[in-house]
Amino acid sequence: MDSIMELLASPAAWAALVTLIVMEVVLGIDNLIFISILSNKLPVEQRQKARRIGISLALVMRLGLLTMIAWIVGLVQPVFDLGIVGPLGAHGEPAFETEFSWRDLILIAGGLFLMWKATTEIHHSVDTDSHDTDTLLDKTKVVQMTFAAAIVQILLLDIVFSIDSILTAVGMTEHVEIMYVAVIFAVMVMLLAADPLANFINGNPTVVMLALGFLLMIGMVLIAEGFGAHVPKGYIYAAMGFSAGVEGLNIWSRRAKDRKAAAKRGDAPGH
Fold this sequence. Notes:
Elements: H1 2-8, H2 11-39, H3 44-66, H4 69-74, E1 78-81, E2 99-101, H5 102-126, H6 147-172, H7 176-203, H8 205-226, H9 233-265
Antiparallel strand pairs: 1-2
Helix pairs in contact: 2-3, 2-6, 2-7, 2-8, 3-6, 3-7, 5-6, 5-8, 7-8, 8-9
């Protein structure tokens, strides 16, 4: 209790909490986009349930991992070395990492899965003639993904994003209490944003392709980080934000044109 009171009275602890909450919310965007796209492939009556379960699993997994911080930190220790001598960088260091930890392997596996999933969905969305089942851009077709399959895929990505989230938290503060509060707050934000985001994506088909592009990029970043190439998250989310802003302007423009066209036909409200 004394340690908690000390944290509550510490400006540094509050600053760490706010910073960590922001980081956890930003890192949760990737997870949320994936859950939204995947849940939208289910029948309408199952979508909200899948999102709730997926986000709840993410919370349980992250809180559980926080109880095993020593084990999580140990995941960054090398488990094997390929021993490949590659080209050297400007300062004489290897151009790519040859030592791999369990964290690296998890990131690479998660990145490959994410790229495979995004590529598959893009292919289904574009090549509609060769698929008689549902695609993300054609809502009139029959949804073929089962509820269990959606939950399993969400769980697999939850593992990857949860480990990355906890390692980020460990690197930013040494107080487990702050990590717990930040993780719970971030997941609550995900829970509140899940339905509006999924409905927005479902109601704007062009946003689906943009979101799949985000997932493809995130998968590539995970693989790069698994091979030791650090990609600043700020650049990634700035690019995502800019792309989302441009798409928002496109949606606004299309809706304005639709309103004008409806007004000319006499179908505008009030006629």
